[in-house]
Write a structure and sequence with these properties.
This protein has six helices and 14 strands. The strands form two sheets. Strands 8-9-10-11-12-7-13-14 form an eight-stranded mixed beta sheet, with helices on both faces. Strands 1, 2, 3, 4, 5 and 6 form a six-stranded antiparallel beta sheet that branches.
Length: 238
Amino acid sequence: MYTIKSVGVSLVKIEGYQLENTNTVCPYLENKIFTSKNLIVNSIDNEGLESLLENGYRHFGTYFFKPECFLCNKCRPIRIPVDSFNLSRSDKRVINKNKMFSVNIIDKSESYTEYYNLYCEHKKRFKDKSEESYDNWISSFFADQSFNKILEIKDRDNLVAVTHLDVTKNIISAVYCYWNKNYGAYSPGKFSILSGIEKAKKMNIKYYYLGYYIKENVHMSYKKHYQPNQILVDDEWK
């Protein structure tokens, strides 16, 4: 058991243990080593999750990690203050283009097979084309955590996009998004983010976390266009 002090809230308790830091090939930038601080969290409440997110952690299931790369610091946690968010002209066009689709945040699905198949197809579009087993996928996105939710976008019976979310009374964090390539013209990734922020506004949620912003990575740099935003620099949100 260890304790982490969080900005704006009292000390919270999180049950788990810290692993050794790992050094791997950077998944975001070429010719870089990715150094990660790692935690296994067996039990965590909503306040504990908010604390870890505020301190720059991300997670897949019970595995929480935080970049601590020497002399790099290119991975910047980024979040949107929901009340201050403004739709750009481009955002409005994306929303209008997708207005025929249904958007819902759900707790569980009767079957995850369709999600898993869509996830596997989505991964083929990136450098990492390795197959992920169904069991590993389940453990990454469907751990026994009360804040786990799914933002589902559908065109009638067709699955357009899925975003795995963490949802508490104060934050929504987008964990991972994947979408049907047949709907690429509808900008499903952008629409998923805009839908999540819209849901957050209706729920009076304070922040929408977008993961890491990396200026030099085209797949991560787009996040700066959602404004206003805040990034974590030297343990302070600016």
